[in-house]
Design a protein that fits this description.
The protein has nine helices and twelve strands. The strands form three sheets. A four-stranded antiparallel β-sheet has the order 2-1-3-4. The longest helix is centred in the last third of the chain and has 32 residues.
């Protein structure tokens, strides 16, 4: 006897079809959800090409103004956020600005204006602003169904520079040891305010396109055109104004003297170990005691904690290169299970925070989890 098709079967089939149709439609819904579009269209997590793009964040600057007394201040971008994902999405930027506004009330700043300046690069392009730094995000309009008016456009006219940028980097690396390059582009009428750390040496700014005026403390202003450059004083702020009618592009060349010294110390330490027939890389294991000789040498080395991190990374990379397919699969599964377990834990803590009113930061710190994650930031950094 044939099984009857019950009503619940029909409902299950209808729900499954609706779910599949939604999943097929969401990646193409960006013509409706315009407020969630950034440099790429589509809802985050539902776009077919979301994993194709590569991103890097140069720096994030948050400025608040107490409008009652016209006083200006700056905030750590990660002060009240445990993730940096908000930096790339206008809707999250808007939410975070309101979060900051509420927090500032506790510091007797009841009438603030908040300006957020995010510098990002997509797919190897220039580092550029993602949002208009002149717009008060608290009062800026945002709707899920309208374009974000305070979002800065991707400088697609400079896309062809990517090949040239790779050529410049290769030329710099081959001709000047330990020299690094950062490529920046900016819009007409705007300026970059930047502080050069004292551990950066031989810093220079080279103009590639457009025209800029560089303003340095105790030095004055200098206008530069393409193929011209200027030395930048470390340990001080400087401003780079884009004065041309077209977007400007320029690059910083610099030497990280701290990293140079670190590499020198590593080489000297490895030479000492080699003379004693010891291997720093193979001898390191975070769960095994160092021999007395290795301990003594490492403890005598400045910034030994950085050595240990470097050695751990070296050993991990070496292990990944030598493992077989099955071991690599097991490592991948363990990593994904760890991410999934951590996600469930964070979800549970978020539920506890909402129901009890205890701040998420307090809960995570109480359980030993580190709250907040700093981005890897290189020059230029504010």
């Amino acid at each position: 006897m044939k099984d009857k098709v019950l009503c619940k079967h029909k409902m299950a089939a209808v729900c499954t079809v609706i779910y599949l149709l939604c999943q097929c439609f969401l990646p193409y819904s960006h013509f409706i959800t315009k407020g969630y579009n950034n440099w790429t269209n589509g809802l985050y997590g539902y776009s077919w090409d979301m994993m194709v793009h590569s991103w890097s964040t140069q720096h994030v600057k948050i400025t608040f103004i107490n409008k009652d007394i016209d006083e200006e201040g700056y905030l750590d971008p990660n002060a009240w956020a445990s993730s940096s994902r908000w930096q790339a999405h206008a809707d999250m930027v808007k939410q975070y600005a309101h979060c900051i506004g509420r927090r500032l009330h506790k510091y007797n700043i009841t009438n603030p204006a908040i300006y957020i300046d995010v510098w990002r690069s997509m797919n190897g392009r220039f580092q550029q602003r993602m949002f208009d730094p002149r717009v008060d995000i608290l009062t800026a309009e945002w709707s899920p169904f309208h374009e974000v008016t305070w979002k800065m456009p991707l400088l697609t006219d400079l896309t062809d520079w990517r090949t040239k940028m790779n050529e410049i980097e290769n030329e710099v690396f081959s001709s000047m040891n330990h020299t690094e390059a950062v490529f920046v582009a900016d819009f007409p009428g705007l300026h970059l305010e930047n502080y050069i750390e004292t551990d950066l040496g031989n810093v220079s700014l080279h103009v590639l396109h457009g025209e800029v005026t560089v303003e340095q403390e105790d030095i004055g202003n200098m206008t530069l055109q393409p193929n011209e450059y200027i030395q930048i004083k470390p340990g001080a702020f400087h401003l780079v104004h884009t004065i041309s009618f077209v977007p400007s592009s320029y690059m910083y060349l610099y030497v990280n003297t701290t990293n140079v010294q670190l590499q020198k110390n590593i080489s000297e330490l490895e030479e000492k170990l080699t003379a004693l027939n010891l291997s720093l890389t193979s001898g390191y294991d975070s769960n095994v005691e160092y021999s007395a000789i290795i301990k003594k040498l490492v403890e005598e080395t400045p910034e030994s904690d950085r050595y240990l991190r470097i050695l751990a990374q070296r050993k991990q990379l070496q292990a990944q290169k030598t493992v077989g397919l099955l071991a690599a699969l097991q490592l991948f599964i363990r990593k994904k299970l760890g991410m999934f377990t951590n996600s469930l834990y964070m979800l549970g803590q978020a539920f506890v925070s909402i129901t009890t009113g205890v701040p998420m930061q307090t809960l995570l710190n109480t359980t030993g989890h580190v709250y907040g994650a700093a981005d890897e930031v290189s020059l230029p950094d504010i």
